[in-house]
Specification:
Blueprint: E1 4-9, H1 17-28, E2 33-38, H2 46-56, E3 65-69, E4 80-85, E5 88-93, H3 99-104, E6 108-113, H4 128-141, H5 146-149, E7 150-153, E8 165-168, E9 171-179, E10 185-190, H6 198-202, E11 204-207, E12 210-212, E13 229-233, E14 238-243, H7 248-252, E15 259-263
Parallel strand pairs: 1-2, 1-3, 3-5
Antiparallel strand pairs: 4-5, 4-6, 6-7, 8-9, 9-10, 9-15, 10-14, 11-12, 11-15, 13-14
Helix pairs in contact: 1-4
Length: 275
Amino acid sequence: MSSIITLLTDFGSADYFVGAMKGVILYSNPEASIVDITHEIPAHDIQSGAFTLLAVYKNFPAGTIHVCVIDPGVGSSRRPILVEAGGYYFVGPDNGVFSFIYEREEDNKVFHLNRAEFFRQPVSNTFHGRDIFAPVAAAISKGAKPAEIGEEITNHVRLDAISPIATGEDELEATIIHVDRFGNCITSLRREHLSENFDANSARIIVNDREITSHRNFFGEDENAARELFTIWGSAGFLEIAAFRASASQMLKAERGQKVKVVAWKMGRGEDVKT
């Protein structure tokens, strides 16, 4: 059993929230290794948290416990849950923050956390990160089984799927699922959705009626074309639209949720494309 516990929140660093969660974990399991992924997710931005978790979870050893708290519904009827998927554990609110994990790891189990003896008492109506999610993560790190902590459910909340959609014989519609701090637009396209020679001539990428025809292997490949839009395979495995030392998002007037049209594409394995 891994004793690595990661924390991903929208709490920021100015308040006591993250420190309180760490204290509860270490009180229960002093041997736990706690890793901060980030606490700078925009406030209440569930989809941003879902993407960040998707991009990073497999960088950790199997058995790692990922605690993700972007929880605008804390204290309401939304359920606290534990997810077992892909050899990892995920602890947080049932508000869709684990949606992309469900999509990537289809063999998953979800448990409603309803065993109060595993919680810190009394449970606050405003801080389940400290009182439910942190102690549950610590319990798992010490060997507790999901079925001991909660009841398996199948009606968990899911955000809209991010897999591209085939819109015609020669067309594919993807979505910008994240815009990073550099203005790079991360799309929902992965390598298996396109042919191996995509960067040469197999597809045209169109955003807001603007066509991107250049593809690069690294950002500074052509420093003489500083404001040229290009595509690049990002480190999270998705196709990104970028501009060297400039914001592609601003240049395209594009934001998360923007549709991306791919024309004259050739399928790879394509198991995630929905028709």
